[in-house]
């Protein structure tokens, strides 16, 4: 028996034809939404697209997706999105593959909480491997914050 969709997915589905939160200018359903659910669930083909889909998941409150794309070795036990945070935009600065199966994505994500703007400038590390027995795919591992800029 099919489970009813989680409320967050229902909300995301209602936005399927809206512009994707990641800023690609494509509809959500043709961008990050493909990896959030459906036949291509969790199948973001490279680290940059996984990065974008995780940003969109933060915007949409898709906690389960964040957990399923966070490497088991570093995924926090408590993982929740804060509905009070308003995400304002994502800018992917660069994506590189230092060696096969590893990638780094530098990005700036802007948000607002309680009237205060916040700018997150991070280089995230990703690996491509079979970390949960469901096949090889990309995972977020951890990130380094860039102070000041
Ligand atoms: Zn997107």
From TrEMBL:
Gene3D superfamilies: 3.10.450.50
InterPro entries linked: NTF2-like_dom_sf, SEC_C_motif, YchJ-like, YchJ-like_M
Residue ranges of domain YchJ-like middle NTF2-like in the record: 47-143
Sections of the chain in a coiled coil: none
Family to which this protein belongs: Belongs to the UPF0225 family.
Record-given protein name: UPF0225 protein AACH11_03295
Annotated organism of origin: Pseudaquabacterium rugosum
């Amino acid at each position: 028996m099919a489970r009813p969709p989680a409320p967050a997915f229902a909300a995301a589905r209602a936005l399927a034809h809206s512009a994707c939160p990641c800023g690609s200018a494509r509809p959500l359903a043709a961008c990050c939404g493909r990896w959030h659910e459906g036949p291509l669930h969790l199948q973001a083909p490279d680290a940059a697209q996984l990065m974008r889909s995780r940003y969109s998941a933060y915007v949409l409150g898709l906690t389960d997706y964040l957990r399923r794309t966070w490497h088991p070795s570093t995924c926090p036990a408590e993982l929740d999105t804060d509905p009070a945070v308003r995400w304002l935009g994502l800018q992917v600065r660069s994506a590189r593959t230092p060696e096969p199966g590893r990638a780094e994505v530098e990005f700036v994500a802007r948000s607002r909480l309680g009237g205060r703007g916040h700018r997150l400038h991070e280089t995230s590390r990703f690996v491509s491997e079979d970390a949960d027995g469901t096949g090889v795919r990309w995972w977020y591992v951890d990130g380094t914050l860039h102070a000041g800029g």
